[in-house]
Amino acid sequence: MSDHVEAPGAPLPAFELPYYVVVFSSVRAAGDQGYGETSDRLDALVREVPGYLGHESARTPGGLGITVGYFRDGAAIEEWRSVAAHRDAQRQGRTEWYESYTLHVAKVERSHGFVRE
Questions:
Q1: What is the sign, positive or negative, of the torsion defined by CA atoms of 40, 45, 69, 95?
Q2: Which of 24, 23, 21, 14 lies closest to 110, judged by CA?
Q3: Handedness of CA 89, 65, 8, 23 (dihedral sign)
Q4: Given Cys at both, which of 26, 29, 40, 68 links 101, Cβ 3.0 to 4.6 Å?
């Protein structure tokens, strides 16, 4: 099992440096076409990837969705990319679920946080 963190309703903490982020920004197509079920299944699968640290998601009222995935290293990202169910979902996303999306991968070299006492 991975060492991921969950913080519902709050930002995830700053992780030990360096780590990597995968930022997925998208605009969904109309209808569900099984998106919710697949999303839940992938959420469970990514948690099994060694080096997965957690993720956060938000959607604007206008429909822009942003998900930020946190990974210990590039190898963890590559392992997630190679999961067959994830590859299948990517194909289905291009044909059914998304009007558009952008993916960014970056190495985090600086990170800090704040929590009011």
A1: negative
A2: 14
A3: positive
A4: 26
Q: What is the CA radius of gyration of the chain?
A: 15
Report residue 26: phi and psi, to 5°.
Answer: -150, 160
In degrees rounded to 5, what are phi and psi of residue 48? -85, -10
Nearest to 21 by CA among 57, 72, 85, 80: 72
Quote the pLDDT of residue 1.
Answer: 39
Structure tokens at 15: 């992780």
Over the stretch 10-63, which tens digit does the pLDDT of each residue have?
A: 899 999 999 999 999 999 998 888 999 999 999 999 999 999 999 999 999 888
- Report residue 24: phi and psi, to 5°: -115, 110
pLDDT of residue 64: 96
Q: For residue 67, what are its two tokens?
A: 């998900």
Per DSSP, the three-state class of 61 is coil
